[in-house]
Design the sequence.
């Protein structure tokens, strides 16, 4: 069990930066009064951020991953169960990969 | 519910959050183990590997740090990459402002240590559906945290015995989770513009910009177009 001092400082620096990004957005918003307009912006963030997370991986995905995503989307719209949607999504990807090895 | 109603912060809320994270804990555990394997390959000690998971607790930035890990240690590039990858969480924290200003400062800033993509997205979906217990973020984050830190040590110990996550489709668990969550959050055509702009800008940024700023850039651009939906009270077009 050894920790190199430089490695320790690097990890602690990463920790500080990461916590600053976690808490910083909330903290910065103290200086912005919560008007109706600002609340409308904040309300738009979750969908926009999630779309920004997903889009590049969808574009780079093959047909198998696209089918898995489509089935998961249908499953959640029909059943409203996240766990079921995930199981259907990754299950179909795993099966299709078995059936059609790259 | 009026904005003046008190916001609860209960053990029940934390446990509900943890329960909602079960599939993501599975994925965090598998990827935590993969991180442990890669960290050992990169020359980190077991203590360094586990310490990083326990303090940074952010998968993408840890994997990038491991890729950059070399002797002598490129400290500044690692720190800059950490900021770039994790900058997206600035938007996530900002979006929680209306909810988390109504709990104590200690509860809010303590909970934020456990904010990750997955439990934040799930928490906001619940919030939009009327759920209010703010301990959801802490409980869901702790569930992920335990899986993430423990599996780093396990992966380090097991080495190459850790299998390929692709076999079980686990490598696509997160994109599928986010895609399904987005579908669940869909409220109608007014979402099309902010989500479409976010997706387009993020895709372009991930293709043409170095670093990992695309989520922050795409999310910011998309959420700003959401402002177009806003009408001043009493405003008539």
Sequence:
């Amino acid at each position: 069990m050894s920790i190199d001092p430089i490695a320790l400082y690097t990890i602690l620096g990463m920790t500080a930066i990461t916590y600053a990004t976690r808490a910083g957005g909330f903290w910065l918003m103290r200086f912005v009064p919560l008007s109706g307009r600002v609340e409308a912006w904040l309300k738009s963030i979750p969908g926009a951020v999630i779309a920004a997370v997903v889009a590049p991986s969808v574009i780079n995905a093959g047909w198998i991953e696209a089918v898995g995503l489509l089935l998961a989307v249908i499953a959640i719209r029909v059943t409203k169960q996240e766990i079921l949607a995930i199981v259907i999504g990754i299950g179909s990807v795993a099966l299709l990969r078995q059936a059609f090895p790259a | 519910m009026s904005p003046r109603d008190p916001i609860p912060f209960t053990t029940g809320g934390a446990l509900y959050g943890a329960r909602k994270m079960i599939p993501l804990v599975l994925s965090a555990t598998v990827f935590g183990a993969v991180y442990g394997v890669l960290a050992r390959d990169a020359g980190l000690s077991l203590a360094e590997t586990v310490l990083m998971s326990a303090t940074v607790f952010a998968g993408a930035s840890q994997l990038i740090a491991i890729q950059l890990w070399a002797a002598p240690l490129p400290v500044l590039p690692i720190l800059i990459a950490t900021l770039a990858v994790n900058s997206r969480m600035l938007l996530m924290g900002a979006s929680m402002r209306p909810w988390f200003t109504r709990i104590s400062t200690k509860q809010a800033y303590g909970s934020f240590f456990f904010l990750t993509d997955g439990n934040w997205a799930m928490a906001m979906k619940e919030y939009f559906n009327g759920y209010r217990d703010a301990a959801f973020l802490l409980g869901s984050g702790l569930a992920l945290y335990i899986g993430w830190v423990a599996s780093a040590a396990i992966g380090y110990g097991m080495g190459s015995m850790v299998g390929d996550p692709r076999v079980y489709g686990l490598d696509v668990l997160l994109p599928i989770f986010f895609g399904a969550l987005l579908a669940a959050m869909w409220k109608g055509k007014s979402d099309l513009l902010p989500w479409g702009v976010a997706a387009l800008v993020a895709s372009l940024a991930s293709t043409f910009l170095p670093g990992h700023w695309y989520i922050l850039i795409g999310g910011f651009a998309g959420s700003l177009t959401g402002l177009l939906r806003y009408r001043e009270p009493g405003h008539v077009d």
Observations:
- Chain B has two domains: 11-185, 187-237.
